[in-house]
Amino acid sequence: MTEWAETLQRSPVKESDELCQTYSQRGEALRAKWDTEGQLSDEEYDQLDTSMLVVNCLNTLSDAKYKRQRKRFDDWNTPEELRISTLSAIGRVICDTRTVRIRIESFEIKSSSSKPQMFIEDKARIILTHFKETIPDTLDELEEHTESSIASLQKKIQLYQDQISPEDSSEHELNRHINNTNLRIKELEKTLQITQRIYDIKEYFHIHMRDNSYLDFDFSITESNSRAPRFKSQGPRKWSQTKFEEIFDPYYAGVEGNYRFKLKLIPISRAPNVFLVCVTAPNGHTDMDSLVHVMFNPNKLDIPQAPQDGYSQRQVGEPIYYKVLAKHLVEKRYYGGKQHNSLTKSVFYLIETESDRIIRRRNGLLKGVQIDIISSYRSPYPHQSYKGTE
After folding, report:
1. What keywords tag this UniProt record (predicted)?
2. CB of 228 within 8 A of CB of 192?
């Protein structure tokens, strides 16, 4: 079976951590069940997704970074569910920075054009064989055939051109033959180019299933290969996206064994940054979500100066796109094992944002309000975007 992520790497810190072991073992058990039974329930699939993303995050963090992260979780008495959501969100960002997404537009039996009754994993194996073996294995023969065919077609064009005469009534027909022959040469060149592109990246194909329609091609291995210097300006995801755009223009139609399929490239979105924050405000504040909105969007807004005050209009800078992934009301806020001021209330927010700006701990527009960053992950490829707020 193709895997969402690696198994948990050996590490004294992570091997002794209960959370690490729980999600590593859960993911392995669900993968084994999928291998045996061929499918999972929606709930089990979500659990596998979460487990593998958590493991992916843990494998990316060094022992020292994970120890600091775990201490921050403990200091803030962060609920386990929110810890998992945070690690999972970071794991997904890490995956998304090194994958290219493909949608299966159609997958049919070649002889009947009917849809086969098969699991996504079986389709993935067929597609993987097509890209890693079948097509690359034809390259040498195709190059030789294409070179010979183009040479023959160019001779034919020359023959047509030699026959053209201003007095000849067949000039129009000869020009049509020349144009058609040139189109045929371009088709041969494009087929060869696509095959060469597939050959170039065949070693980097690692398919992950998202659901019955989507596949991810993981290109993380390219970060250490001979093309790595390009990544200083491009990054591995941009490099792989460029290669795939050449192959999937506008889609890729392939035949493998008894099946034919059509695949479409899904434009990648920019990888966001992830923050787990604690927003603290005086008890009089009833809408904590609006405080987060103000912290991220300091442009023209109705801003409460204090819980009982009226509102004022401010206009400063541009809005920052963000999305709340999860939130949790803190009944009694603790830090370092000590309970904090009972006259304030706090809410944990798990937020992703495409901005590379880091929110400030305090905002001068909001009296008595502060945001503490418990966890943060800054994507290697963030994107400054102004989409408005979700």
Report:
1. Coiled coil
2. no
- C-alpha–C-alpha distance, residues 109 and 263, integer Å: 15
Alpha helices in 206-271, H assignment, sequence order: 236-247
CA-CA distance, 372 to 362, in Å (whole number)? Answer: 9
Non-local (6+) Cβ contacts of 78 within 8 A are: 72, 86, 276, 348, 374
Quote the CA–CA distance of 194 and 197 in Å, as a whole number.
Answer: 5
Residue 356 and residue 320: Cα distance in Å, rounded? 9
Model confidence pLDDT, tens digit, residues 135-158: 999 999 999 999 999 999 999 989
For the entire predicted model, the pTM comes to: 0.63
- Omega prior to 236 cis, within 30 of 0: no
Taking a C-beta distance cutoff of 8 angstroms, is the pair 197, 243 a contact?
Answer: yes
Give the HSE-up count for residue 73: Cα atoms under 13 Å, Cβ half-sphere: 17
| Residue 23 near residue 55 (C-beta atoms within 8 A) | yes
CA distance 250 to 84: 39
What gap in Å lies between CA 217 and CA 206, rounded to an integer?
5
Any idea what DSSP says for residue 350?
E
CA within 13 Å, CB half, 19: 22
Residue 16 DSSP SS3: coil
